């Protein structure tokens, strides 16, 4: 089964991943033709976790933009707005760290149905907690009051939340995945649960008032910075979001990936699969399944890397290895084999 096809549970819930992928390609194809009248500053090809623009001959600016998605609907339904700000920060800084950059700031965009000071203060508390966890500033942002566009669950408490992250990286220290070789170790870091992807499917199965869906996305920045600054040969970094382990294929590496010692799958995912009759292929294409981030390191450095990562994220472990099956992700336990088109 391909989790992105139109007869998937996720598609019936309203999200057609295959269609979304085609739409993104159409958007990128047009934007790639922008002519500025001067040489491009882009240091990375499109498709990585973050963009990098050359500031000068040695330094780069890493950029990422992402939101919280329909997790805000759960927050609205439960009347708890103090955690989704953490998710907003996490979704952005976790992407920027994937290119080896040091995230330094996030700008927030909050669109609301009604400007409620108490609600905005709750959202701000989450943003502050996330920023402090990631070690970034929030020097500015935007509040838009859009009652004709935003409708709450319930109204008039609707809102949407997005972030834009900026980081710094030495151009000769960008982590792209190009250094990855067959036989390298894949280390997985535990997730806290759903994180901020697949909420449309999770809500369809569990409802909009399940508090487990509000557990914030884990912020991996400090642990990954410590790993990068150590003597470990870090060759690839992957934020495991929507599309699950297929995110490993975003690395610029001519390899495949075999996950044969996965981290424990939280009970929440088992419940979604059973109650929603969701096939394993779709579960692994929509959710992180207990692993929120992956590091690819030289095999001889695996033990040292796990030791460093476990200081902040207990449960980090070697979950597999890279292979010669270029462009293929294999998950041994569920018996799945996937490509960029899905499992």
Describe this structure in words.
- This protein is an alpha+beta fold.
- The protein has 2 domains: about 50-175, PurM-like, N-terminal domain (60s Ribosomal Protein L30, Chain: A, 2-Layer Sandwich); about 185-340, Phosphoribosyl-aminoimidazole Synthetase, Chain A, domain 2.
- About 30% of the residues lie in helices and about 20% in strands.
- It has helices spanning about 10, 15-30, 70-80, 85-95, 115-135, 200-205, 220-230, 265-275, 280-285, 300-310; strands at about 50-55, 60-65, 100-110, 140-145, 160-170, 185-190, 235-240, 255-260, 290-295, 315-325, 330, 335-340.
- A 7-stranded mixed sheet has the order 7-9-6-10-8-11-12.
- Strand 1 (about 50-55) and strand 2 form a beta hairpin.
- The termini are close together.
Task: Write down the secondary-structure element order.
Answer: HHEEHHEHEEEHHEEHHEHEEE
CATH architecture of the largest domain: Alpha-Beta Complex
User: How many DSSP-defined strands?
Assistant: 12
Helix content: 25-40%
Distance between the termini: 7 Å
The CATH class of the largest domain is Alpha Beta
In DSSP terms (H or I, runs of 4 or more residues), the helix count works out at 10
Q: What general form does the structure show? A: globular
Strand-pairing-aware structural class: alpha+beta
Beta-strand content: 15-25%
Please give the domain count: 2
**Radius of gyration (Å):** 20 Å
> CATH homologous superfamily of the largest domain - what is it?
PurM-like C-terminal domain
Low-confidence stretches: 1-6
Regarding quaternary structure, what we see is: single chain
Query: Largest beta sheet: what is the strand line-up?
Result: 7-9-6-10-8-11-12
Chain-averaged pLDDT:
95
How can the largest sheet be summarized? Answer: 7 strands, mixed
CATH topology of the largest domain: the name is: Phosphoribosyl-aminoimidazole Synthetase, Chain A, domain 2
